[in-house]
Amino acid sequence: MDRSMGNKSLLKTAEAEKISHLDYFKIAISVDCVILGYEQQELKVLLIKSDLKEFSNLYSLLGDLVNPDEDLDAASYRILRERTGLDDIFLQQVHTFGTINRHPSGRVITTAYFALLDINNVKLKINNNHLHWHPVNDIKKMAFDHKTILDTCLHRLREQVMEHPVVFNLLPEKFSLRELQELYEAILNTELDRRNFRKKMAIKDWLHDLDEMEVDVPHRPGKLYKLKTVLRKKSGQKKVEKV
Amino acid sequence: MDRSMGNKSLLKTAEAEKISHLDYFKIAISVDCVILGYEQQELKVLLIKSDLKEFSNLYSLLGDLVNPDEDLDAASYRILRERTGLDDIFLQQVHTFGTINRHPSGRVITTAYFALLDINNVKLKINNNHLHWHPVNDIKKMAFDHKTILDTCLHRLREQVMEHPVVFNLLPEKFSLRELQELYEAILNTELDRRNFRKKMAIKDWLHDLDEMEVDVPHRPGKLYKLKTVLRKKSGQKKVEKV
DNA sequence: TCAAAAGTGTTGACTTTACACCCATGA
DNA sequence: TCATGGGTGTAAAGTCAACACTTTTGA
Predict the structure, then answer these.
(1) Interface of A with B in 127-156 (CB under 8 A)
(2) What is the pLDDT of residues B127-152, one digit of tens each?
(3) How many CA atoms lie within 13 A of A192 on its CB side?
(4) Rounded to 5 degrees, what are φ and ψ at A239?
(5) Which domains does chain B show, CATH number per domain?
(6) Is the CB of B196 under 7 A from strand C?
């Protein structure tokens, strides 16, 4: 950012600039988190009932204003921690939504993140306002522009899922290949061929064979795997592919 | 965004909420544009000398604070228009940078966009502050966190270039396959095989054969093409690929 | 006639898809 | 013994990478 346009290269100090810009500190910024979990072969998102009259009976994502002394990313981690009690979580920034009238309280620009977590690790912190896990395929209308935000984040997730080992954040540490495949199918909303899926996973070399078996399944138990330790990471970064 | 945490589902009006949030309107938001052009087989970015003492002699991207009554995207189009006089330009949001101390004047969160334009169409509007086109491969240090922003945008551009018909925004309307290939090579920083490149373009079916030839080249002239009209677009949106 | 780039196909390696059978386990 | 999913291989189609020669034009 550089507001130098039209002034004739007079150097200003940052402090002087600050004063001349007070007018602009009239926009609030928030973060909104698409917190995703996976349960009963369904992808679910953590929602809360909006407490604004304008949106009564609609659900919204979890978000909050960013504090002036808080990094943007830190704000999203704070939301997660406050709501789920979890701290070491996969989180990725997706897009910033900034139309003028997206928030009825005033000018609020929001940066959307998605988070992936193991739903069984979560004890929801405060259980009022209908905080709950909601199947993502079962959402028509939301408060604010949150439906758009949700869709944008799901789109991004789908783009990444085959290239980057991210979805493992949705599973318990140990899982079978069937569970993993079902998760992919839930995310991509499609069916996958079992043999081809297993081949693909073998090629990616993401998994570590635990030499353990499923227990308490009503059929032949499958092998258990975990994500290779080197691939675990808290936030996603992408690599450029060679063309 | 929903600040309902911990309150016992008392509905508030947006107006009431606005008042209680005044404290938070202490963050400014800006947009920064990585404005890219292509000239002499080089990718270039439009830079200006920073007018902050803290960054004297460093260049910065073109950006500005977002006005309270201006959409975020509109702000980036405004920057472009002010600096280049161009209006109908490819522009894409990339990432929002929000660490506390990234701007010495105070808390400024910035959303980065990249723009692609035909450098020959541009008459730079105000030519002070060393506004100029700078080869992207020749930049080490920039004001603020602008080097990171630039790198992030270039990374995103490289990711998109083979999947989406975006780079055509950098070329004149009519171009030869050689020119197009040289552009791809400049963006990707690599050499491409001519035959394979032409095959790939043929498969993508992005180009319309104009039945015209290059003129004034000191060798056998090549055919001229233009991007198919249906594929022209001002801002980029991605599609999910089927897996 | 020379220099420069245009234009063009094939082969081998690899990747992706489609598809079916026997096996191990728990009920 | 039955139901359920585990586990596995192959062939055909398609994609990708490497590679060289002839043609056209302007100088």
Answers:
(1) 128-129, 143-144, 155
(2) 678 999 999 999 999 999 999 999 99
(3) 24
(4) -110, 150
(5) 25-160 (3.90.79.10), 168-231 (1.10.10.10)
(6) yes
